[in-house]
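Database export, one record per block. Field names are fixed; values are copied verbatim from the stored entry.
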Amino acid sequence: MPDTIDAQVLTQVAGQPVVELAARFGTPLYVYDAAVIARRIADLAAFEVIRFAQKACSTLAVLDLVRRHGVVVDAVSAGEIQRALAAGFQAGFDEPPQIVYTADIFDREALELVAAKQIPVNCGSPDMIDQYGERCPGRGITLRINPGFGHGHSQKTNTGGQQSKHGIWHTQLGQCVERARKFELSIAGLHMHIGSGTDLEHLSQVCGAMERAALAVGPSVHTISAGGGLPTPYREGDKRVDVAAYFELWEGVRRRLSEAFGHKVSLELEPGRYLVAESGSLIAEIRAVKRMGDNLFYVLDAGFNNLARPILYGAYHPMAVAYADGMGGPERRSGDKQPVVVGGPLCESGDIFTQEDGGYVRSRDLPAAQVGDFVVIGVAGAYGAVMGSNYNSKPLAAEVLVEDGQAHLVRRRQSFEDVIRGETIPK
């Protein structure tokens, strides 16, 4: 939980001493707690199918972990299909399929891959239906529907409504049914997702929109997907979603559609952030403590090349300090805190972890620290390492999975040779 680390002095992450993790693997370092992921999966056990939106964290070891816990996977690119296969998921039209391709377009590589590997497709645009039908006539498809409204903790995470590129506009559903019929494609399921951080009020609206859309398509529908977007607590006081109430909303839709169609309709959930966010911590070393006018800065060896959420949409992450000696001297164990701006090493003024949406820099009350100590950024398992970049020619961070009390290096830190691999100078 965020309130267990925010502004605290921390000694361990996932049961492992922070100092030992940093010494063994270096920093910046992502650490994932397998037990937290397992708990979040168990939260959702009432849902018949849990389909992990791997875009949240596609590290192979994490994909393998969720697979071992009975979770199937969603892929939004050819690369994610290949990642799923590399992690042990099987291609094909099993029920439920272990891999589903969900996107708003087919690039040429993705279209060839889903055709050759028999990967089920969730179409997010009318053109996808035509392209898939020409390549794979007679197969089944699902449709992602944009119900005409959306919701999200930021406009940039809102995936419904007319300002969103995602999905098939709800009024075009009938036209899409005709397009599918032209290629003898059966519409076997529907998917609807309006954004991340949605609440039960908005989710109930999605339920109604899904029910209307499914009845419009008819009894070819055998699966409905509730999408994802379950909120995750980041700040102290953030409430968890009532999963039981959420399930009851969707179970009512599933039951009524099953009765209307005269056959079982299965219910999928597609969580991403919900499964992995709280499992992840980013450990960074403080490399400078400097005062700039009224502001005191902790400047870390991690930047937005490692964790982009704050610069993208002012996302809040809880932070703690871990002392290099494992404890901190008496003057630093007093519990005294000071307002600090936490930033990274990149040559960008926006490389600040304590900022709000719009780029407004804010301070955070953190324990006193010095060069060589560590800042632990929490709830960083989703949209963290997976969005990493080589900006400023920085290597991608190492990643560690802690499972059954053992810390496993699951992605080594890039070398300089890794960073420039594939580049050439013309002769």
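Remark 1: The first strand starts at residue 12 and ends at 13.
Remark 2: The first helix runs from residue 18 to 25.
End of record.
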